[in-house]
């Protein structure tokens, strides 16, 4: 079971360089807005590209999507692949901090 993490806990880890955010939405959603520095790994690519995008299976990875449904699914799949430092951040809709992107579309 992958542990949930609050945005407040996540921003502390990200700011300290102790974790990496991973966005499991689609590329067009990522382009609209994402957590600064986040890596993109669409849910449909988790089984085939995880090791490419997330090479260290023991690092702290903060998985998020739009509302939390895809992040929970992705976290389960990643855990099954041997990732140990996973935290489910849930959805970017509840992220109160800085977001980078083109903001032309909507979340």
UniProtKB/TrEMBL annotation:
InterPro entries: GlpE_sulfurtransferase, Rhodanese-like_dom, Rhodanese-like_dom_sf, Thiosulphate_STrfase_CS
Superkingdom of the organism of origin: Bacteria
SMART domains: RHOD (SM00450)
Domain Rhodanese: 15-101
Pfam family, one: Rhodanese
Protein name as catalogued: Rhodanese-like domain-containing protein
CDD domains on file: RHOD
